[in-house]
Write a structure and sequence with these properties.
The chain is α/β, with parallel strands linked by helices. The protein is 41% helix and 18% strand. It has a 5-stranded parallel sheet, sandwiched between helices. A two-stranded antiparallel ribbon has the order 2-3.
Length: 164
């Protein structure tokens, strides 16, 4: 890896609700119990969110793009395929361990702190208001992805069940 590449700042992007439109699979979270296998199984059919994709592509001009998602590790192959299929910049993908149920705001702040040990984190782009607040409070720059439809079931799942 070249020195130029390793010295570039990081632009960190969430996926669900930031780059990927999850509206078509929200109904899996409205059931009780929630159907997590159905929810994540439907992710390959997500439509890209144009504003998020454009920001990721634009950020790739002077930053290394990194993806920080609450999706579980078992979704890695589908996630990598989806990112490539929709023209997103290549970048490392950090995913939640399959058994990790901590709130998204906790896991994402922890990972950003790890990433920031050796690199400048220029920004995090995320749709989750609680994640954005926690990341901002931890001293990072945040761009709130407010371009997707509000998904209260997703928000509840992120915070209450640590699933996305």
């Amino acid at each position: 890896m070249s020195e130029h590449r390793t010295s570039r700042p990081l632009a960190v992007f969430d996926i669900d609700g930031t780059l990927a439109d999850t509206a078509h699979r929200q109904y899996f979270l409205e059931r009780r119990p929630r159907d997590w296998n159905g929810f994540f199984g439907a992710a390959p059919a997500d439509r890209p969110l144009a504003r998020g994709v454009a920001l990721a592509v634009e950020s790739g001009a002077d930053c290394e793009v990194v993806y920080l998602t609450g999706r579980p590790e078992r979704c890695r192959a589908d996630t990598l395929d989806w990112l490539a299929r929709h023209g997103l910049p290549e970048g490392r993908v950090w995913m939640r361990g399959d058994q990790d149920r901590r709130p998204a705001r906790t896991t994402k702040v922890d990972m950003l702190r790890r990433l920031a040990r050796g690199r400048e984190v220029r920004m995090l782009v995320d749709d989750d208001e609680l994640v954005c607040d926690a990341v901002r409070a931890a001293g990072f720059r945040v761009v709130r992805a407010d371009w997707a439809a509000d998904a209260p079931e997703m928000r509840d799942a992120q915070e209450g069940e640590g699933r996305t």
